[in-house]
Design goal:
seven-stranded mixed β-sheet; three-stranded parallel β-sheet; 12 helices; 17% strand; globular
């Protein structure tokens, strides 16, 4: 299990670790990287891990390295035949690994993800995100050519997949989609289990939420590359301004709240959706998600 900690509060971290401790499948090696050497929680985290996990390693970065480098560091310490992922603000259901191991072996897969329950910062369920059925092999590739539905905190994959791909690449806020696309291009067999086994916390202050415009642009580039049989070139990632990010986030927020706004504000939203580059990019992402859900 690869996990990183940055600035998450202790109650989130403790709940995440407790959910690992309570797994029905107990053969777990926890590799945890603390990517914040100034964190006041270092001693508390190390003490909790030492007391509750028989096989574990806590690594403290000497300086902040970011998610991608921290995950690659964690992988270098891992010894298991399978590699799993989870974020330190999410929560696993007790049967997560039992179900994932059964699914990956039964269907002779290399790499699996699952449906997910979204929760808010207080841990209350928002909704379940599911495709309505299990997807295997070509079905997953067809979906991923449109939009990424391979939820990062639910991953379980054979060690050889991560080793042969060379770990994660530095793709801002889309390192997971890039990894999935490269796995598909390498002909690995992927599957999505239609069962919510992780509760993913939606944190509006997370890096991916704040960088959602660039994330969307890169995701669409990854999807296009996958259709054409190519991985994206890291030398040509899109550059966006803070103004672009802000405009996109405003449009996204207004769209989410569209049922509760006045008529004049709704007209203004429609004009932004069709009349700005940020709006058109957002509409395209929504369309691709809807197409994926109907697979």
């Amino acid at each position: 299990m690869l996990m990183t900690i940055y600035k998450e509060p202790w109650n989130w971290i403790e709940r995440a670790l407790y959910s690992l401790k309570k797994q029905t499948y107990q053969d777990i090696e926890l590799i945890l990287v603390i990517d914040n050497p100034q964190s006041e929680l270092i001693a508390k985290v190390k003490d909790y891990v030492d007391k509750n996990f028989d096989v574990s390693k806590v690594i403290i970065n000497k300086k902040n390295k970011g998610l991608v480098k921290s995950l690659n560091i964690a992988f270098n310490y891992a010894n298991g035949s399978y590699i799993a992922r989870m974020d330190s603000d999410d929560i696993c259901y007790e049967n997560r690994f039992s179900n994932e191991m059964e699914f990956i072996k039964k269907n002779n897969l290399d790499f699996v993800a699952t449906a997910i329950d979204l929760i808010d910062t207080d841990g209350e369920k928002i909704k379940k995100i599911s495709l309505g059925k299990d997807l295997i092999g070509k079905q997953v590739k067809k979906l991923e050519k449109r939009t990424n539905q391979f939820w990062h905190p639910t991953w379980l994959l054979k060690r050889e997949v991560m080793k042969n791909l060379g770990g994660y690449r530095a793709v801002p806020s889309a390192e997971d989609y890039d990894f999935v696309a490269r796995a598909l291009l390498k002909k690995y067999k992927l599957g999505i289990l239609n069962k919510a086994l992780v509760r993913k916390r939606i944190n509006q202050n997370s890096i991916s939420e704040l960088d959602t415009y660039r994330q969307t642009l890169i995701a669409q580039s990854i999807a296009k590359g996958l259709k054409n049989g190519n991985e994206i070139d890291l030398n040509y990632l899109p550059n966006v301004t803070e103004r672009d990010k802000k405009k996109y986030l405003e449009i996204k927020t207004a769209f989410v709240n569209r049922h509760n706004i006045k008529c004049s504000a709704l007209v203004n939203l429609i004009m932004k959706l069709v009349g700005t580059s940020q709006g058109r990019i957002f509409l395209k992402s929504i369309l691709l998600q809807k197409m994926g859900a109907r697979l």
